[in-house]
Amino acid sequence: MKPSTGNSGALGKIAHFFFSTDHKVVAIQYVVSALIMLFVGFLFMLLMRWQLAYPFQSLPLIGGWFPEDHPTMPGGVITANFYNQLGAMHGTIMIFLAVVPLAVGGFGTYLVPLMLGATGLAFPRLSKLGYWCYLSGTLILLGSFFLPGGAANSGWTAYPPLSVIENAGQTTWLIGVAFVYFSSLVLSINILTTIVQLRCKGLGFMRLPFFVWSQLVTSVLLLLAFPPLVAAAVMQLLDRVLGSSFFLPSGLVVSGEALDVSGGGSALLWQHLFWFLAHPEVYVLLLPAFGVVAEVIAANTRKPLFGYKGMVYSSIFLGIMSMLVWAHHMFLTGMGITLSEFFQITTIIISLPAVIVATSLVVSLWGGSIRFSVPMLYALAFLPMFGIGGLTGLPLAMSATNIMLHDTYYVIGHFHYVVAPGILFALFAGIYHWYPKVTGRKMNDRLGRWHFWPTLICMNGIFSHQILQGFAGVSRRLYDGGESYAHGMEAFGLNSGATWAAFGLLLVQAFFIVNFFYSLKWGEKVDRNPWKATSLEWAAPSPPLPEVNFETPPAAYRDAMTYSEPGAEKDYSPQWEPSS
Amino acid sequence: MSFYPFSYFPTLASEHGATIDQLTVAIFSFITIVFIGWLVFFAYTLFRFRSGKSPKAQARNPRGRWVYGLAAGILVAELFIHYGLGAGVGASQLSAISPTADTLQVRVVAQQFAWNIHYPGADGIFGRTAPEFYNDQSNPVGIDPDDELGKDDIVTFKQLYLPVNKPVRIELTSKDVIHSFFLPEFRIKQDVIPGMEIPVTFVPTMTTEAFRKLKGSETRDFEIACAQLCGVTHYSMKGTVRVLEKGAFNAWLIEKAPTESDDDDDFWADDDF
Amino acid sequence: MMFFLRAMALAAVLISGSGVFAGSITGKVTYEGKVPTFKPIDTSGDPHCAAHAGDNPPVIEVLVLGEGQSMANIVVKVIKGLPEGKTWPAPTEAAVMTQKGCQYSPHVTALQLGQKLKVLNPDGILHNVNCQPKLNKAVNKARPKNMKELVFDFDKAEAPFRFKCDVHPWMMAYCTVIAHPFFDVTEKDGIFTIDGLEPGEYVIEAWQERLGKQTATVTVTADKAGEANFTFTRPSRKK
C-alpha cells in the first residue's frame, strides 16, 4: 500500500493536515491544541494569582495597558466578575480542553494503534469528527469572553441556581462544553473499539502494554460517565433558555425580585449528575498518567513492571469504584448519615487499587538499572507528587475532617497536586519520551533538565502554600484572597509565595517551549527505537509511515515489557522479535 | 509564616471541634509517616539502582504479595481512623442531632450577599415564613405579618448572637442560590441550599470576650464566611458571631424584642413592584 | 439651592399670575391618610455603615413626607401632548446618585434619554450596584473599595426600575429614563415644575413607588402656566 501524501504544495499540505484522518495527524492536532489551551489556562491562573496576592492592585507590567474604563480590568485591576469568569474558565479549560484532550485525544489516539501494531484507529473519520467537535467547543468557550457580560462565571462546576440566573456566558459555556463532551464520547468509542478489534497477531489482552490498558479503562469511564452529564447540561440549558425548572426550587427571590420560574426543581440534582461524571473524570485524567509513567519507568529501569496483572486488575477495579464515589464531593449538602457513610466507605475502598498501582510503580524501580533521562525524571517526580495528592485526599474523604477543609484552599492544593505536578508531569514525561517517535528527533536533554527541576520546585511552591492556607480556613473562590476576613489572615501572606512561584513557573516553561520547537528542526536525529524499548510503537519508523504506520504488519511474540531476559543478547526483548 | 501546618488552625471555640481537630492531626500524622517511609524507600531505591551502580537490571521482580498487604494495611488504618476516632462529628451527624429542651433554635436565611438571622423570640416559636413576604428593608426573612407567633420574632442582619456552653440548632436556608455557612472557629460548615432547610447543631465554648482577649484585639469577632461561590460579591459575604454569657445573652434578647409601637401596617412593606 | 430656586419659581408664578413663566406646568403632591412609622434599619451588621452614616443613618424611604404631608420622590412627567417625532438634546451633564452611609441618595432619579448616570461611592467601602431595569440591559457591578465612580448609560426610555446594593440589601433607589426633558422629581416640599412647554393641552403623570400612578390633563397657554395638584392616599388594608 502506498501512503498517500496528499496534494503537493504548501496549500495542499495544510489542507491535508486539516482533513487527514490519519490517527497520527489527528493526535498531533489534539496535542498542539491541548498544549495551547494548557498555556491559556495557565495564564488565566496567573491573572487570578496576582489578584489573590495583591488584591485591587494593578497588574505588573501589563496593568498600564488597561484604561480606567476598561470593562474587565479597569486600570489593570481585575474586576470581581472577571475574576469569577477566569476561575470558571481556568477549571473548564484545564480539565476539558487541555488535560483530557492531551492524555486521551493526543496520547491515546497516537499511541494506541501503534502499540497494537495497527494501521490506525477503528473509525478514522470518527476521530476527525471528534477533533472538530473539540475544536468547535474550544472556540465557542474562548469566544464567550467576547460576548456582552463575558464568559461563564459560576465555576467549572456550574452549580445552579447561580449558574441559571447568571450571565449569558453560561449558555455559551453549556453549548461549548456539550461539544467537548461529545468529542470525548466519540473518542472513547473509537479507542475502545480499536483496542478490542485491532490488536495484531499474537497480542493477547495480557500482553498489552499497561498504557493501552489504562486507555481502555479510561474509555469505558468516558463512555459511561459522559451521557448523564450531557443530559444534565441540556437540562441546565433548558432551565436557562426555555424557562424549565429542573434545578430551580419554588420560591426563589433574587435581589428582592421573585424569580419568574415554575419552580419545583432541585438544586442538588445537578450536583449528583455533575459529580457522577466529574469524579470518574479524575480517573480519566489519572489512568493515562499511570499508563505513561509505567511505560517510561519500564524503559528506563530496563526491567519488566512489577505486578503487571495486579496493576491491570487494580485499574479495572479503580474504574468500577470511581463510578461509586461521586457524592463524596457533596458531604455538606445535607445528605443523610447512611448515604454519607456509604460514600465514605467507597472512597476509602478506592484508595486500595490506587495504592496498589502507585506502589507497584515504585517497587518496579527495585532491582532496575535506572537511567535518569528527562522523561524518567518526570515519571519519577510523578510518584511522590501523586503520593502527596492522593494522601492529602484522605482527610477530605472523611466527612468529619471534611467539614473544615471542604471548599478551602486545602482542596485546591490537594487536587492540583494530583493534576499539576502529578498528571501533568506524567504527560510531560510522555511528551519527552515519545517526541522522537513523532518527529524522528530527540528533545534537547539539557533544556529538558533545566525545564524539569525549576518546574518541580515552582509547582510545589504554589501548592504547598495552598495546603497550608486551607488549614487556616481560607475559602476558595474568594476574589480578594481572603482579605475581607480576619480568620486566616495569618495565612494571607502565603498568597504571595504561591503567586511568585506561579510566575517562576511561567518563566521556566520557556525552556520547554524553546525545546519543543528547536528540536523539531535541530534535535538529535534518532532511529526507530532510541530508548531501546520493547512495545510495538518502537517497531515503526520514526515518524511512523503515513496511513499505515509499519512497513510490514508486526506480530507480537511476548509480553509488552520484556527487559533483561536471562540469556538474551541485549537487555531488551522487543515484542515484535520472534524468540530465537 | 509558619510551616507547621496545625499552627494555622483557627482558634477552637466549639465542643465537637476538638474531635475534628484531633482527627485532622491523627490523619496527618498517619499520612506523613506513610509518605516519609515511602519517600525513604523511594530515594534509597533510586540511589541503589542508579545505572552507574547497577548496570544490569534484575530480570525478575521481587516477590511482592506484600504490596497488596501494604495496600490492605493502609485501608485498614483508614477504616480505623475513620471509625475509631472520627465517628459522630460528620456534617450529616451534626445535621441529625435533634433539639432538646435546652437547645437554642435559630434560623439563618442566606441571600446574595447577606446572612439574615431569625430568632423565635420570647415564645420560642418561629412565626410562619414564606417567600412572598420577603422585603429587603423591613422583613428580610419573610415573616407572615398576620401570624401572631411571629410578632415577637427577632431578626438581625449578619450578626449571630449565641449564649456560651449551650447547644444551638441553626436551620439554614437560602432565598436565591447555594451558599455555604462557614464558622471557622466553631468548626462548622454547611451548604445552604434553596428549597431545603438543613439544620446544624453545635455548642459554642468560648465567649467573644475571651476570644478577643486571646487574640489581643478589641474588635476581633468570630466570623461567618460564605464558602460556596454565590455570585459577584461572594468574597465579602461576611457576618459575625457574638458569643455571650447566658445573662448577657438574655439581656440582648430583651433589648432586641420588638416593641408594641412598631408599625404593624404591612402595606408599606409589601414588595409588589 | 435647588429647593430655593424652585420655591422662587413657584412663588413667582403664583404671585404674578401672568405670562412671565408661560409654557410651564406646576403643582404640588400631597399625601392623605395615616402616616406610618417605619422600623429603623438595622445596619449594625456592617460597622462601616454606621461609621460613615454619621447623623443620617439609612431609613426606609418608601414614603417621604414634608410639612403638611407634601410628598417627596414623586416623578411627574408629560405623557401626552408633545409634538410627534420631535427630539430634544439630552443634558451633557450626568445625573448623580451616591451610596453615602449605606443609603442611595437621592432615592428617586429621573434621567433624560441619552443622559448618563454616575453612581458615586464617597465612603470607599464595598458596595455593588445592582441595576435591575426591564427594558435596558441589567447590570450588576461589584465595586471594589478603590472604585469611587461608576457610570451607567441607558439606551431606552423606561418606567422606574430599581437600583440595589447586594452587600447591603436594604439599599434601594429608583431610576427612570424619560425620552424628553419635560419631567420633574419632587422634593420634600412636594412641588414640581415642568418648563419650556409650547402652549397646548398635555396629560401629565405622577408616579409613586408604592402608590402607583395618577394622571391629570393640563392646558398650557401662552400667558398662563398650567397647574395640577395630586393627592395620593393609601388604599384600605387588604385582607
Keywords summarizing the entry:
A: 580 residues; mainly alpha; Cytochrome C Oxidase, Chain A; 2 strands; 61% helix; globular; C: 239 residues; mainly beta; Immunoglobulin-like; 2 domains; 5-stranded mixed beta sheet; 2 helices; 16 strands
Can you walk through the features of this model?
The complex is a heterotrimer of chains A (580), B (273) and C (239). By secondary structure, chain A is an all-alpha fold. Chain A has one domain: Cytochrome C Oxidase, Chain A (Up-down Bundle), CATH 1.20.210.10. Chain A is built from 16 helices and two strands. Chain A has a two-stranded antiparallel sheet. In chain A, helix 3 crosses helix 14, helix 8 runs antiparallel to helix 9 and helix 8 packs antiparallel against helix 11. Chain B is α+β, with helices and mostly antiparallel strands and 273 residues long. Chain B folds into two domains: 72 residues, no CATH class; 158 residues, Cupredoxins -  blue copper proteins (Immunoglobulin-like, Sandwich), CATH 2.60.40. In chain B, a hairpin with a 4-residue loop joins strand 6 and strand 7. Chain C is mostly beta strands and 239 residues long. Chain C has two domains: 91 residues, Sandwich (Immunoglobulin-like), CATH 2.60.40; 103 residues, Cupredoxins -  blue copper proteins (Immunoglobulin-like). Chain C is 9% helix and 36% strand. Chain C is built from two helices and 16 strands. In chain C, the strands form four sheets. Chain C has a five-stranded mixed beta sheet with strand order 4-10-9-6-7, with no helix packed on it. In chain C, a hairpin with a 3-residue loop joins strand 13 and strand 14. About 4% of the residues of chain C have low confidence. Classes of the chains: A mainly alpha (580), B alpha+beta (273), C mainly beta (239). Chains A and B meet through helix 3, strand 1, strand 2, helix 8 and helix 10 of A and helix 1, helix 2, helix 3, strand 7 and strand 9 of B.
